Amino acid sequence: MNRGLPLRLTEIGGLGVERVASTKARAMLSRIAKSRAPQYHKSRTVMLPFKLVYSDAYYLPIGQHVFPAEKYRRIHDRLISNKIAEAHDFLKPQPASDEDILLVHTPEYVHKLKTGTLSPREEMELEIPYSRNLVEAFWLSAGGSILAARQALTDGVSVNIGGGFHHAFPDHGEGFCMIHDVAVAIRRMQRDENIRTAMTVDCDVHHGNGTAAIFPGTRTTTEPLPSAGPGTLGPSSRNSRASGKIRVAHSGDVFTISLHQHNNYPLWKPPSSIDVDLPDGTTDDDYLAWLDNALSSGLRQFEPDLLCYIAGADPYREDQLGGLSLTIDGLKRRDELVFRVARARNIPVMVTYAGGYARNVEDTVTIHCDTVIAAKEVFTKRMSS
Ligand SMILES: [Zn+2]
């Protein structure tokens, strides 16, 4: 008989000790059983209680660039290889239609993109080289965010392993962002009457200028926040030295929150409903206090049917384009906070990834994978509670 290496546990159990002739063989089988049992249980992937949206065609054909265009595939592969997700947890998106894109972007801009007639200045502002394939990748990302938004309404949460292009304006692109996929998804969901209102929670290190321009807030109130002083607020008394600033303004059907490093791109920051201007070097605990304050304040003022979480990886302390000092653990706690708050209020969450430029691209991949793990932890608890 085969002495064993490809034995399954059921086969080991089924042999019966009395049928094994030698003590040596019994010891060997016992060792195999002991060594395999825990591995068998550990290696089982528990199906995610929500869907991930991904396509290999999310890859941005931009050549050598600080934006790690291959990060989407790496995230997908890591999620599979680390048994965080399985192939059937992923949905494959279709490109957004031109009609969808036109819910946010001007016909003139869309025409320029489709005919390759951006001016040199417009291409320079985009900061990634124009190509027809690039246009297709952005249309696909927008389709992915539409799909994730729909799926979030079904499952409570969904993650687009891409998107978050929050620097795109209705009439031009900026800062690696050609099409504002999140805004397209919100407008499409509203058009389909799946939602009436939405909230964007932008935790990329850079201000969500495109989001603020698309969903302009009118400065109507300045609501004091917990632990607030007049004008400039600190997240905690011990941090009075590092003065962040929170600005509140809102009207309309989409409430926008942006937490960002104040001294960073973009220079002109049109007002979001809540802007939290963070000082250089902000660390985990202060960041989380600011985020908690901003979420509490936003949700006191506004009841969204959908929360669009823009989970940038670039507040990381090792980021090449960021100047905040969050750790990988702090970023995961950030994700957990957003998910816990949304879950507690039964607000569906659609997640997109935005930026991430860590010196070591594997750190960016880890931070983005942790977002899926955080969602899995928070939303699995929800289902079992
Ligand atoms: Zn960014």
* CATH homologous superfamily classification of the largest domain: Histone deacetylase domain
Strands of the widest sheet, in order across it, are: 2-1-3-9-8-4-6-7-5
Distinct compounds present: zinc ion
CATH class of the largest domain: Alpha Beta
Structural topology:
Elements: H1 9-15, H2 23-43, E1 51-53, H3 71-81, E2 90-91, H4 98-101, H5 107-115, H6 120-126, H7 132-155, E3 157-160, H8 181-191, E4 198-202, H9 209-214, E5 245-248, E6 254-261, E7 274-278, H10 284-301, E8 306-310, H11 328-344, E9 349-352, H12 361-384
Parallel strand pairs: 1-2, 1-3, 3-9, 4-6, 4-8, 6-7, 8-9
Antiparallel strand pairs: 5-7
The structure holds zinc ion.
Report on the structure:
Helix content is 41%, strand content 10%. With 385 residues, the chain is α/β, with parallel strands linked by helices. It folds into two domains: 9-43; 51-384, Arginase, Chain A (3-Layer(aba) Sandwich). Helix 11 (328-344) packs parallel to helix 12. The protein is globular, with a radius of gyration of 24 Å. The N and C termini lie far apart (49 Å). The model is unreliable at 1-21, 32-42 and 219-241 (pLDDT under 50). Residues 204-206, 312, 314, 354-355 line the site of zinc ion. Zinc ion (ZN) is lined by residues 204-206, 312, 314, 354-355.
